[in-house]
Design a protein that fits this description.
The complex is a heterodimer of chains A (402) and B (85). Chain A has 14 helices and 14 strands. With 402 residues, chain A is of the alpha/beta class. The two termini of chain B are 19 Å apart. The chains are: A alpha/beta (402), B mainly alpha (85).
């Protein structure tokens, strides 16, 4: 089996338009959640979210590109450019032929659906733009990355709700580890912050009207975010041979299915995914210093996740740090695991643990070190990142400092 | 603006050219408009004139709408506008 390292990272989210900006915001415990701004927002009961501000398609993309790129594709291409430029990898010849793109998204071009449904249903129009389908399809972002950067190997999109990015990255990891591909572009993106996208979540009645407070006793729900996180996963020898700067190593993963309930999380499913990732990475539980939690800020997730951590790690659960950066950037749904992987890279590479902000009251059912409100300096060798999706589909990745 | 000027403006925008570079004899191929560009142009023309153009991208030559050059496209649009009125 090949070793797999990360040689490039890119992002855009409500905390920043790049990885350095996002790291700075996480170090400072800044909150990217604010009042939502879009058409008909006044008809929503939920009016907050981690919206990307100051991002204009005009100037970044030409007219033809804008007619084909939904906002989730625009985010993806922007983050992919940052990641691939940082990596310095060039996709040509054999490397291009074998390398591909595996991305996660839950909704794909949600605002394209929304705008065009509005046009035909509300405004009574009988004609839509010819590119509605290629713009809204879930694989549009992965396809445009492959075209833009000449990736000709296996490319596809994974859609497992809130675990989409983790499932995608696990798949890309496997492809590089098995020797199938020398490098893969992976991660995910989401852009659901439009009237229909938020209205749908509102219906479930799990959303907070004021803040995302994971693990806090007074938590009252999740807050949506938007953006993308994109990475270059590369075979270690390939990266070393070209003198690439290695951000960290991906050492294992596991996926599990609760096979229980379409929305309620399961302690056993979560625990099996974490234990599976440790076993795949061939590490002992006590080597893990940091877990980036799924930590949605809902009553059900946070206590279930903490109980699962206690089950898997035993007494070591009290020694490790676990934080939810959703408190800062919101829940990016299908893109969330990718943006949260950045917190693991920051922990491993810079020795800074991103905090769980907006934390107000300890909850005896979440009695772990959740790094409340302020980032912390700590040496971490191994980190896990959790994603537990609606539908009971779980994916956990394990990473190590190089 | 006449129908001709409006159509030329739409085609020129699609081809990223100045309207003065688009002549009645120009073919879509001359102008560098590919199949996606053609479908987008037809959409823009339908929106502009509120007409419905009988065009199937699977078999452009079988459609009852001549796209062999700019003059043919304008003639087809004039006919559709007349039928609507």
């Amino acid at each position: 089996m090949k070793r797999v390292v990360i040689t490039g990272a890119g992002t855009i989210n409500s905390l920043g338009h790049s990885v350095p900006d996002t790291f700075e915001a996480m170090r400072e415990g800044r909150c990217g959640i604010g009042e939502l701004e879009f058409r008909d927002v006044e008809r929503l009961a939920i009016r907050i979210g981690g919206q990307v501000r100051g991002f204009e398609a005009e100037g970044r993309f030409n007219r033809q590109q804008m007619s084909l790129y939904d906002r989730f594709t625009q985010f993806t291409l922007t983050a992919a450019k940052e990641a691939i430029e940082q990596s310095g990898i060039v996709f040509s010849g054999e490397v291009a032929a074998k390398s591909g793109v595996v991305l996660g998204t839950a909704g794909g071009g949600v605002s394209t659906w929304d705008d065009n449904y509005r046009a035909v249903y509300e405004e009574g129009k009988n004609r839509v733009h010819p590119f509605v389908v290629p713009k809204l399809m879930n694989n549009a972002a992965a396809s445009h990355v492959s075209m833009e950067f000449n990736l000709k190997g296996p490319s596809f999109t994974v859609s497992t709700a809130c675990a989409s990015s983790n499932h995608a990255m696990a798949q890309a990891f496997q492809m590089v580890r098995s020797g199938m591909a020398p490098a893969m572009i992976t991660g995910g993106s989401e852009s659901m912050l439009c009237f229909g996208g938020v209205k749908a979540w509102e219906g479930l009645r799990v959303m907070s009207k004021d803040a995302c407070r994971p693990f806090s006793a007074n938590r009252n729900g999740m807050v949506q975010g938007e953006g993308a996180g994109i990475f270059v996963f590369e075979e270690y020898e390939h990266a070393k041979a070209r003198g690439a700067d290695i951000l960290c190593e991906v050492i294992g993963f596991a996926m599990s299915s609760d096979a229980a309930d379409i929305v309620m999380p399961s302690k056993q499913g979560a625990a099996r995914a974490m234990a599976g990732a440790l076993s795949d990475a061939r590490i002992n539980p006590d080597e893990v210093g940091y877990i980036n939690a799924h930590g949605t800020g809902t009553a059900a997730n946070d206590k279930t996740e903490c109980a699962a951590v206690a089950d898997v790690f035993g007494p070591h659960a009290d020694n490790l740090m676990i934080s939810s950066t959703k408190s800062m950037h919101g829940h990016l749904i299908g893109g969330t695991g990718a943006v949260e992987l950045l917190a693991c890279i920051m922990a491993l590479r810079e020795g800074v643990i991103a905090p769980t902000i907006s934390y107000e009251e300890p909850d005896p059912e979440c009695a772990l070190d959740v790094v409340p409100n302020e980032a912390r300096e700590a040496k971490v060798n191994v980190a896990l990142t959790n994603a537990f999706a609606f539908g009971g589909l779980n994916a956990v990745l394990a990473l190590r400092q190089v | 603006m006449s129908t001709q000027d409006k159509v030329i403006a739409i085609i020129a925008e699609q081809a990223v050219l100045e309207p003065s570079d688009v002549t009645l004899e120009s073919t879509l191929e001359d102008l560098g408009i590919d199949s996606l560009g053609l479908v987008e142009s037809i959409f823009a023309i339908e929106e502009e004139f509120d007409i419905s153009i009988p065009f199937n991208a699977n078999e452009p030559s079988e459609s009852d709408f001549d796209i062999s050059n700019v003059a043919a496209i304008i003639a087809g649009i004039d006919k559709l506008i007349a039928e609507k009125a």
